[in-house]
């Protein structure tokens, strides 16, 4: 019986090739886009799922004031020795319910300036080589670290490799990069050097190709971690209570660091499940960009919209095509066919069409994944053709779409009485028009909402890219942090070339702020919180085009503090004055958390000038108070900041490379463009905007396919009417107005429905940005107008074709 249904369905599809082709294209596009969205969401949810016993592995997050940090500070911060760095680890390890505790930091963390590190080693043939590494982990709890993450060891011994001090563990990719594909025969007894310290190569681990919230190329086991804190991971015992362990951790930490007990700014620490880390945002000092759960919802909604439009298309076409099949269905009912049989017949057609689209959808998905990966900077693979389970899932999903697409037309068409189907009554047409209106409004509501949201997202991204940040970013490059001695030598050599006219030293806009501080006026008890502390020399200010008021560079002292408008306003409010110049020459204490050798707190600076509020970080963040320390002769290693001649960029970069290698012979040059660094702050938003645009185009194409077919059928229903009106003297223009006025009304209704929902959604997304565009009504009107033009254009084309038909032929139409 079911075989006969499929046979009849196949005959119907082959007989009506245009109907079948348009439906097939729409289903293929819709299913492939939906599968791609599902694949992306699945990939995001797989972060850290591959670790053994992941349900017992947690990271310790630290809360201070209103911020949460992924890193836990050592007892004495930068001054902590090995024993002091392990005090908190030892205290936590003694807690009942805790099985393992490990800590590490990384050179690509903001706490270590996110700068590349430089290694030297022998390549096994007696030749020393130098390498640049950007992902170096440093740990003084190597054995526990391995027991928590249990990486696959390809070479070496677990206990000695991760426990012996001054040992190095390479990833397979690093081993191949250093020693070639035959690294197994060379790596034994090799050493590498970092910061003049020798590390014995003790192990090689398999590359971690799974999604993880952190990764590395080399792990160094070292007695001390060169940072003020570390990422702390804890593995709980089976059956232990998370809440009880969390409470005991805070109690233990208060015992080893009593100063936090009476400090109201200390909010305690908490354990975060490792599999929850990737999709948690607003945590500072993450080792890699976090995902955002809202973007999974956004893509999920877009995928659902495309799927709904696809299904709506099928329903519209099936119902519109009813006028061509009413006699067939009526005759089958007269011959005794039950409603169930006719229902199964229509469902068979929908399922068969979806089944045919399945291999086409998988092929289209396979072709689109590389482009999707390039847009989203991902490494997705087509899991649907790599595993039987994946294929079965997509098969069930496809059949489900077929049933959902066909169920309404099947029930509607099989429910008509035989006499009603055979007679050419107007009742059926009116019903079809009522259904068509609902489906048309629903479909265009989704399109207008999606199109409006896409326009607004890209408007915000355009606003970000073109907003005046308060400093110059064009033609500015940054390069390796360098010592003050090398800085002066490089600067003198470069400025002798006409391609260079300015060079400075300091912190770089676009990098995560590595220091926040409290501050107060000397002699005052009132403290101000969360000020950014920026450090650079006068030349760096000049390179960035930052103007300073209240002080002249030539008359400035060796070291001076510059306030932005936000910090100056706080202090003026405190003093009850509107004159910011009254702050000049006053002493300001910063870093109130740190104790000096004489047991006083804070570092004293003199206020020397002011700058306007600068957007040195992401526009997602509101401009906070900022203190800029200007040092004429900085003795701390900072980034080189250089302005180059963009018209002769290649020549300028070659000169920089030659000068740098002449002065700094042991460290390779690493440069980056400031404009690119700033764009990376919004990389995720840019990818969302790009992908939303492409998916919106696909949604429009799918809807357009359905609209073309449906309008053709609807115009065909009125072919005789058009012929009569032509005989009575109606012009083509009058016929166009007659048939298109209904579409105008329906698109207007769709625009009215879509506007409030889209407004609420986009307002919620924009709330993540401290600086954002206004949501203007014209965007919704423009999107509705574009949708109206598309709909009317399609109807006009169909109407002109029919209107140009001879009346004698039109009057013979059924």
How is the topology of this model organized?
Elements (H helix, E strand, L loop, with lengths): L1 H14 L1 H29 L11 E8 L2 E3 L2 E2 L8 H4 L1 H7 L4 E9 L10 E6 L5 E6 L2 E4 L2 H8 L3 E3 L2 H6 L3 E5 H8 L11 E4 L2 E9 L12 E4 L7 E8 L5 H15 L9 E8 L9 E2 L8 H28 L1 H13 L4 H38 L11 H27 L3 H5 L3 H41 L9 E7 L1 H11 L5 E7 L9 E6 L6 E9 L1 H6 L15 E5 L1 H11 L11 E9 L5 E10 L15 E6 L6 E7 L4 H15 L7 E3 H7 L2 H35 L1 H9 L4 H35 L10 H27 L3 H4 L4
Parallel strand pairs: 2-15, 7-12, 9-11, 19-23, 20-22
Antiparallel strand pairs: 1-2, 1-13, 1-14, 3-13, 4-7, 4-13, 5-6, 5-10, 8-11, 9-12, 10-11, 16-24, 16-25, 17-24, 18-19, 18-21, 20-23, 21-22
Can you summarize this structure?
The protein is 50% helix and 18% strand. With 814 residues, it is α+β, with helices and mostly antiparallel strands. Helix 14 (426-466) packs antiparallel against helix 20 (683-717).
